[in-house]
Target: Threonine/homoserine efflux transporter RhtA
Amino acid sequence: MEALGGKNKKEDSLTAYEGKWLIVVLTLITMMAFAANSLFTRMAFQTTEIDAASFTAIRIISGALTLVSIAQIKGESPKFSRINWFSAFLLFIYAAAFSFAYRNISTGAGALVLFAAAQLLMISYGIYKGERASFLGMLLALGGLVFFLAPGASAPPLGAAALMALAGFAWGGFSLLGKKGDSPISGTASSFLLAIPFSIGLLLIPNEAVRVDRAGIIYALLSGTLASGVGYAIWYWVRIRMAAITAGAVQLSVPVLSAIFGALLLEERITSRGAISALVVLAGIALVTLTTKRR
Model:
């Protein structure tokens, strides 16, 4: 009996160990998927003829189909309410601004501005709701972002950076609304479905010629199905199995991975100013994440 009990404990310990490694591996895959979103979008506008509105529409439609399929496999169905419409509008603003910004900003720089804007909005909302966090961390994050965007030879174009900041604020608002839902998968699927009319409407606005090619469509589909749909689904599974602080901290890797992907696959240059700014911004956000206390 003692030997049998010892064996069961050993098996339980092994199962827990394997479970932790599964979470680590899936977290890494998810962060790479988030970074790949930036890469696919940037590659589309650097190497194909597709326009930003078409890319946005294809990404949202393919993401909606993917998430609805995943929700149905789980036995869930999309729900439509007033808050879902608002979430859909924020999702559309994020996706559209994201696409238009990446026509003129590098992969890593875009991800840094996006991530910083989203996190700063969510942190500010937390402080408004009574949470307490490091004031020094906020100053570091804001200071690093200002230094990165300040005029200079290596600064990203201001218009593209402003669009990416808008995308980040919209994504932060979308994420905050998503916390109020019961099922992240069905809620996100609903938002993607309701964002389709907005994306089609964008195609009808005479802002630029609608252009698509095979490679551009493929990048948009990869962004919508794998990097968005599947990536979000895996992240929600992982997210509920880790502490909130850990979930916030691991996302610090996304701008870094995006910059590495851009350097390796698009030969984008990582400047010393950009690297220093990124380290300061990410250090500030990490400090805020690790010191946040609820009221």
